TrEMBL record:
Species for this entry: Crenobacter luteus
Membrane topology of the entry: Multi-pass membrane protein
Domain of life assignment: Bacteria
Keywords of this entry: Cell membrane, Membrane, Transmembrane, Transmembrane helix, Transport
Protein name: Probable membrane transporter protein
InterPro entries: TM_pro_TauE-like, TSUP
Spans traversing the lipid bilayer: 12-33, 78-100, 106-124, 145-172, 207-225, 237-255
Locations listed in the record: Cell membrane
One term under GO cellular component: plasma membrane
Amino acid sequence: MKVPPVTETLVLLGVIAFVSGLIDAAVGGGGLIQIPGLFNVLPQSTAPATVFGTNKFSSICGTAIASRQYVRRVRLPWSLVLPAAVCAFAFAFVGATAVSLIPKEVLKPIILALLIAMAGYTFMKKDFGHLHKPKEITARERWMAAALGAAIGFYDGLFGPGTGSFLAFLFIRCFAFDFLHASASAKVVNLATNLASLAFFIPSGHILWWAALPMAACNMAGGMVGARLAIRGGVKLIRVLFLILSMVLIGKFGADLFWH
């Protein structure tokens, strides 16, 4: 592939990062846009770990700004969100260390089945995620939040695609959140898993700073716009975007499985 001039490359990466940040802030799944974009635009000689490191640095900036937008406008149950975030951070490390032990080919059919079940459940239950009637927060709910954070953190460190969607779905299903509160809570937990990843990528030198820094600025701009759209559009908009993203994820995993 012919590598575009540096200026054109940065413009392309900036557009990709902005769109990724916007989608990710609203419903998650920005990596589905940004990672393929990086692989296509960056030189083919770029190591995959460097591509993922550059992606993580950019995306965490967008996630941080989106989290800030949500926290300022949406009241979150921190006694649930914080245990989930702490455990997600810790187990993202564990997942990263297990990457070489579990082949991704084994995971893909499992994730595809989960995505289909999640999308089908959301589509069939028309009121799913529409009402915000959170359960009373007891020790049981805190332990459940910690366990869910650990499981999703492990998955994000091990594999990653669809992390935000799984988090949002679980916050709705297990704690009776609506889509808005679930997306806001998912952003905070996802921020923790991204921090865990960067704790590996930065010391190991797997970040292209000349690309990561301008992409981070564009991702932040997209994250701000996406969060505001989600907050203004409310539950109905996020539900539609959630279902669309779920179908895209199903299509991607299905193509990966059956095409190869």
